[in-house]
Specification:
The chain has 345 residues and is α/β, with parallel strands linked by helices. It folds into 2 domains: 180 residues, Rossmann fold, CATH 3.40.50.10490; 139 residues, 3-Layer(aba) Sandwich (Rossmann fold). Helix content is 48%, strand content 15%. The protein is built from 15 helices and 10 strands. Strands 2-1-3-4-5 form a 5-stranded parallel beta sheet, sandwiched between helices. A 5-stranded parallel beta sheet has the order 7-6-8-9-10, sandwiched between helices. Strand 1, helix 4 and strand 2 form a beta-alpha-beta unit. Helix 3 packs across helix 8.
């Protein structure tokens, strides 16, 4: 896992270089489509959450997350004409995702596959495949394949938007920012120590960084065997925040700018007032950093592109925490690299 985290700058550079020429084809395929639906599971689903926010905020395209069981178990007869369906799978072989893409095509959708294997079933069946260049990923927890998927989401947004140049400047800086974060490891060990002190944790973010919060929570669960809730801070305030006490550590993630920073900063203050055992913050501005107990610097990237690098300190933190707990971060208990949703598959 540590080696593959370190490979991310090169993987991101390769992926961005490879996929940028696809933006024109994406624009032609999307054409006059009225909406975008993402189909994914696991880490790929968290990448899709980022894609959904980015398409709506940057490209002005109504987007949402599809429920694969609507296709695979209910075989619903939906009219998907005028819909672009984007299926996301690292392996391209998760049967549920392959079947859902095929179903969507029969219902009139145009299809895009995002996968790390250009010869996979998902890529071969799609109208257009965005093949990431992460290279073979050996560790079970997705790291470089996940950030490469985020890069594909940024390319997708550029292809479906008239404001491509608005993303390019920061995209060019992503590999170097990821390299800087990996080399510095600022705050990572202190954050892992804080999280090791208790079994109770929650993770929160909002908007364009919400997918990052969900991915950080998933990594803590699958790699460190911690029961973790990943919540939007809006949902957290609508009731679950009542459980926060001296046994809880909160992990908050936010970009360095954008409309969510003030709310995340106030949430950090609130959690400390409620007596949380600790508040760890990844990213944010100076005010956010002073509001948390352990500040882990994030990337110097604008909010729309920050998620491509913002997850990296969380990956480092999780790998460190797993080893502190005597666990093998490369092969979490009971998991495999390609997951089939239903036991019969």
């Amino acid at each position: 896992m540590a080696r593959e985290i370190a490979e991310q700058p090169a993987a991101l550079a390769r992926t961005l270089q490879s996929l940028r020429p696809q933006r024109a084809a994406l624009n032609r395929l999307a054409g006059d489509t009225r909406a975008v639906l993402f189909v994914a599971r696991g880490s790929s689903d968290n990448a899709a959450v980022y894609g959904r926010y980015l398409l709506e905020v940057h490209a002005g395209r109504p987007s949402g997350l599809a429920a694969p069981s609507v296709a695979t178990h209910y075989a619903a007869e939906l009219d998907l004409s005028g819909v672009l369906v984007v299926s996301v799978s690292q392996s391209g072989e998760t049967q549920e995702i392959v079947e859902t893409q095929a179903w969507a095509a029969t219902r009139g959708a145009r299809t895009v596959a995002v996968t790390n294997d250009g010869s996979s079933s998902l890529a071969n069946a799609a109208d257009l495949a965005l093949v990431t260049e992460a290279g073979t990923e050996v560790a079970v927890p997705a790291t470089k394949s996940y950030t490469a998927q985020l890069a594909a989401m940024a390319i997708l947004a550029g292809g479906l938007s008239a404001r491509t140049d608005a993303l390019d400047a920061d995209l060019d800086r992503v590999p170097d920012e990821v390299e800087r974060l990996i080399t510095a490891r600022a705050g990572v060990d202190a954050a892992a120590t804080q999280l090791a002190a208790t079994n109770e944790a929650l993770v929160s973010g909002r908007g364009l960084t919400f997918g990052t919060a969900l991915e950080a929570a998933l990594k803590l669960e699958e790699t460190c065997l911690r029961p973790v809730r990943g919540l939007s801070y809006a949902d957290l305030r609508h009731g679950p925040i009542a459980v926060v006490d001296a046994d809880h550590v909160a992990l908050l993630v936010t970009a360095a700018d954008g409309p969510m920073v003030p709310g995340m900063t106030e949430l950090a203050h609130d959690l400390r007032r409620r007596g949380a055992a600790g508040v760890v913050g990844i990213g944010g501005d100076a005010g956010f950093g002073s509001a948390v107990d352990v500040a882990v610097p994030g990337p110097e990237l604008s909010e729309p592109i920050a998620p491509l690098a913002l997850i990296v300190p969380a990956q480092l933190m999780v790998e460190t925490l797993a080893r502190k707990l005597g666990l093998d971060p490369d092969e979490p208990r009971g998991l495999s690299k390609v997951t089939q949703t239903d036991p019969s598959e």
